[in-house]
Amino acid sequence: xxxxxxxxxxxxxxxxxxxxxxxxxxxxxxxxxxxxxxxxxxxxxxxxxxxxxxxxxxxxxxxxxxxxxxxxxxxxxxxxxxxxxxxxxxxxxxxxxxxxxxxxxxxxxxxxxxxxxxxxxxxxxxxxxxxxxxxxxxxxxxxxxxxxxxxxxxx
Length: 155
Hints:
Elements: E1 2-6, H1 10-20, E2 29-33, H2 37-40, E3 56-57, E4 75-76, E5 79-81, H3 88-98, E6 104-109, H4 121-129, E7 135-138, E8 141-144, H5 145-152
């Protein structure tokens, strides 16, 4: 399980920093479709990395558009996803690309500072309600704090 957000929204980036109690100068890792990696990063067309373990460099023309994932030396720890994967994350990236958004998301572990990574659904729900996250997706279920507030009248 992981936390994702769109890279162009500075507020979302700030929210994730607060949720994770992370220092502002530590950028988050990007995730994109394998077919898109060479468009935004200085990598070969066949570049592939399924984990955030390798350092690559953000292309000059995208540095200002990707501040949440660009380190001070213009590097990033890029994770790529197979375009033929039909899971939720590649579907979101494909949707973004189709609608002319930069198809890159911030990808970080789903945990709060000092806590282990969330692995079970019950831990995901607990962490969701004790954090500043807005939406939780588990399998095909979407839980929105805003919708819960408006439907229950609770704040």
